[in-house]
Design goal:
Length: about 100
């Protein structure tokens, strides 16, 4: 499944660790605090647990949006597209 992770984390150290975790799971940064990638259900669950470890639940937020390929093709874009060079060929193909 495709997974979007979008977060708002106030502490630099926790925010950096969240970004590192996303990249370790093969997600691609599409904006400063937005990642996209192809993961399985177990990996998504692990990412959720990692987020729970890293954030302060009173001040921070992490959104995990699983998305099937069919729904991904329905995504509307307004404005500038993110850098396709940052996205793996597999994901770029799904976006066409």
């Amino acid at each position: 499944m495709l997974l979007w992770i979008i977060y708002d984390i106030s502490k630099d150290k926790a925010r950096k660790k969240m970004a590192d975790a996303c990249e370790q799971y093969g997600l691609y940064r599409v904006q400063y605090s937005a990642f996209l990638g192809d993961v399985n259900k177990n990996q998504m669950d692990e990412m959720q647990l990692k987020a729970e470890e890293l954030i302060n639940e009173k001040t921070d937020a992490v959104y995990l949006f699983p998305m099937c390929e069919e729904d991904f093709k329905k995504v509307a874009l307004v404005g500038q597209e993110f850098d396709r060079k940052l996205i793996a060929d597999q994901l770029s193909t799904k976006m066409v």
